[in-house]
Amino acid sequence: MKNFLIRAITGILFVAIVVTCFLDPRAMVLLFALVTGLTVWEFTGLVNQRGNDDEAPVHVTVNRFICTVAGVYFFFAVAYFCSDVYGGSAKSMVFIPYLVTVVYLLVAELYGKQPDPINNWAYTMLSQMYIALPFSLINVLAFTATPDGRVMFNTILPLSVFVCLWLNDTGAYCVGSLLGRHKLFPRISPGKSWEGSIGGAVVVLLVAWAIHYFLLDPDHTGQAILPLAEWLGLSLTIVVFGTWGDLVESLFKRTLGIKDSGNILPGHGGMLDRFDSSLLAIPAAVIYLYTLTLF
User: Fold this and answer.
1) Pick from 68, 60, 59: which is nearest to 101 by CA?
2) Which value, in Å, is the radius of gyration of the alpha carbons in the chain?
3) Is beta strand 189-193 parallel, antiparallel or unpaired with respect to 151-153?
4) Which residues contact 50 (CB under 8 A, 6 or more apart)?
5) Is the Cβ–Cβ distance between 104 and 165 less than 8 Å?
6) Judging by beta carbons within 10 Å of its beta carbon (0-12, 13-18, 19+), is residue 244 exposed, middle or buried?
7) Helix (H) or strand (E) run with residue 185 in it
8) How many CB atoms lie within 10 A of CB 43?
9) What pLDDT does residue 145 have?
10) The pTM is what?
11) Cβ-contact 280, 164 below 8 angstroms
12) Where are the alpha helices (DSSP H) in 127-227?
């Protein structure tokens, strides 16, 4: 009972903080810069721990501090690039320090005399591609340009990613607990079922339709942030890639032989445990929305 209460309180606070941050662009940028740093730090700590295990088949020693600073800087750089309407072409210069850091992390292995520099390179770049890049793409969803060249902060699009993921998790758990018979991916996540996954997707689509009808389009005139079909398509994209994101992190933990990625969130594990689905859902949402602009 105590563990359930702790988990419930942590979950409520977590949802409240994430939802509230999307009401103000500065709060959103600061919170997810912090999330990026904590997640990269957690990830690099896990792979270093594996590399220091005498029974591990690989040797890994990545620079946790520089990887974390680089990931946070990249997030701020993308936020500035997406939100600054006056920077012009010169604003792309903000990425130069990040590129210098990446070059340093590659060249440093020449002098580190580590037994397996290839693994160090691989895990170092993975911390940026798997964590820093997806989180940074939140800024692409949050800051949108208007036809007259202004940049507006968009609360709905980035928040919708997390709302869809939360609804999908809740729906999948409830439906899977009642009707789950066929395993979705037993090799990696034995608890997931096809019935639960389909149930979660149905819940998301129903709620997405309700949000579109009652909130995004209060006058029912069609003047919503996205047409209904595209809005439902976005929701389904988030569900599918969010499920894959969850499975990817499960494979990561299974490979390392751990249950939780950390314990920073009481009752919920680590940062990777809480944001695993979003690490694929956010890039997928960006790709989906950009694809719509091509047709």
Assistant:
1) 68
2) 20
3) unpaired
4) 56, 58, 60, 256
5) no
6) middle
7) strand 183-185
8) 27
9) 79
10) 0.92
11) no
12) 133-136, 138-142, 156-179, 194-211
- What is the DSSP pairing of strand 183-185 with strand 151-153? unpaired
Q: What residue type is 209 in one-letter code? A: W
Q: Contact at 8 Å (CB) between 160 and 234? A: yes
Q: What percent of the chain has pLDDT over 90?
A: 61
- Confirm if 256 and 270 have CB atoms less than 8 A apart: no
What is the DSSP secondary structure assignment for residue 269, as one 8-state letter? B
Nearest to 262 by CA among 14, 22, 49: 49
DSSP 220: S
**Cβ within 8 Å of residue 295, ≥6 positions away:** none
- List all residues 6 or more positions away from 48 whose beta carbon is below 8 Å from its beta carbon: 60, 61, 62, 64
Tokens representing 3? Answer: 């563990």
List, for residues 92-114, the tens digit of each pLDDT value.
899 999 999 999 999 999 988 88
Assess whether pLDDT exceeds 70 at residue 276.
yes
Give Cα separations from 201 to 16, 24, 239, 274 (angstroms).
23, 29, 6, 19
Neighbours of 109 (CB within 10 A): 18
Give the β-pairing of 143-145 and 151-153.
antiparallel
For 27-82, how does the pLDDT look when each residue is reduced to its tens digit (9 = 90+)?
Answer: 999 999 999 999 999 999 999 987 666 565 668 889 999 999 999 999 999 999 99
Residues 76 and 33: beta-carbon distance below 8 Å: yes
Contact yes or no for 245/277 (Cβ under 8 A)? yes
More confident residue, 259 or 231: 231
Q: In what helix (H) or strand (E) does residue 293 lie, and over which residues does it extend?
A: none
Residue among 194, 196, 202, 188 nearest 254 (CA)? 188
| CA 237/CA 233 separation, integer angstroms | 6
